[in-house]
Amino acid sequence: MQGAQAFDEMGFDGDTPRDAYHRIKRWLDDAPPEYLQTRRAQAELFFRRIGITFAVYGDAQADERLIPFDIIPRVIARSEWTRLEKGLVQRVKALNAFLADVYGPREILRAGLLPDELVLRNPQYCLAVIGKQPPHGVFTHIAGIDIVRTGPDDFYVLEDNARTPSGVSYMLENREVMLRLLPELFDRHRVAPVDDYPEMLLSTLSSVAPPNCKGEPTIVVLTPGFHNSAYYEHSFLADKLGVELVEGSDLFVRGDMLFMRTTEGPKRVDVVYRRVDDDFIDPLVFNPGSVLGVPGLMSAYAAGNLTIANAPGTGIADDKAVYSYMPEIVRFYTGEEPILANVPTWRCRERDALGHVLDNLKDLVVKEVDGSGGYGMLVGPHATTAQIEDFAAKLKATPEKFIAQPTLALSTCPTLVDEGIAPRHVDLRPFVLTGAKGSRIVPGGLTRVALKPGSLVVNSSQGGGTKDTWVLDD
Q1: Tens digit of each residue's pLDDT (9 = 90 or more) over 347-384
Q2: Domain tally for the chain?
Q3: Which value, to the nearest 10 degrees, does the dihedral of the CA atoms of residues 418, 419, 424, 429 take?
Q4: Ranges for the Circularly permuted ATP-grasp type domain (predicted)?
Q5: 249 belongs to a structural domain
Q6: What stretches of 42-127 adopt beta strand conformation (E)?
Q7: Could you tell me if 245 and 288 lie in one domain?
Q8: Positive or negative, the Cα torsion across 7, 9, 13, 15?
Q9: What is the pLDDT of residues 294-345, one digit of tens each?
Q10: Of 240, 295, 301, 464, which sees the most CB atoms within 10 A?
Q11: What distance in Å separates the CA atoms of residue 253 and residue 296, rounded to the nearest whole number?
Q12: Where in the sequence is the domain holding 331, given as residue range(s)?
């Protein structure tokens, strides 16, 4: 995978495109450049008018930043998606089983498949959750699994996002803007819909309401507030679900039950779709200085009177060192071979692995085990000598905080840039919903694109953009 030429999903440099892109290639050949640039400008105007922004902490222009959107869709054939879907369902099933186990009987630790200290001493291991199983046994109700592609049949899981994965609002809004601006392109394809995601999410959350819930469950979306970088998504989802968007001050606990303040008096809440990290959801259990959460929230959860989605403690499944054991985890809990492979990973906490990483830093990608958003990482081939030396010092000081992976030749898709149409590297984040009756996935997900030539960093916080993702039914 390392040093290889990137796989182009359309066949950008060839005369004959891949089957899934045949009509897209014809459309691009026929469309005048000024037409494409006009549609690109109209898409930006659309997103600006409806207020889709993404704040970048520490950036003075954070309130004004839009995630760039590319109007050329990323296309996935139905046969390709079918394999991805099976692999995603298998992986999330294993993640939920792993979480139930490490907070319960710890059979995987007794079997010696993971080092005890990797789990039990992990900063993301939540002591307050030990012995407390969530309603219906589901820990991660909404999972965002990051997928990269390196060849026609080569898909790899890059990361598991099991805490509060974001980006689904962009998936839905990307489709909306494409339908408005390029209806003629949809007329040429049978594109699988994604607009039923809110209905699927509402059904999923309703299905995991506590057993003592009477009638239709009351569901809320808990946000840290409008200063949060993903606040637009929080309000968007609450609106689409038809539920209340609340902050911690809107809720209180009485008698081990959670209530919401309303103009008609207190109303019991059964399910909280929280977009607040563990550290801040209950100051009586976690960070005592938090004003974002609800005092006593964990007591209501522990009493079985409340479902929190995703459940507290899921951060251990996000840990990138734990990720490196996912093939073993999948086999242990499902009895099956993993359908989707991991990216080869060196655990820097291991002496031999650390030595290899230090000797090859210029060729590797090094990440913090609990990092996200493209921060705190080293992309060796694009780093300066000084950056590599600084990172080597970090690795030697705290090797347990890092993992390393080869520099993948991520696939590319045609992308409209200022100079015209050019290949840019992409990844994919499908969203897996798991409720009382199993997992469901809308066909597609959020494609993120690295807009800088040659860049492999697709994160919006690092200058990446997004694309609409089409799964073709024909």
Answers
A1: 999 999 999 999 999 999 999 987 765 667 898 888 99
A2: 3
A3: 20
A4: 73-450
A5: yes
A6: 69-77
A7: yes
A8: positive
A9: 999 999 999 999 999 999 999 999 999 999 999 999 999 999 999 999 999 9
A10: 301
A11: 6
A12: 19-194+326-343+426-472
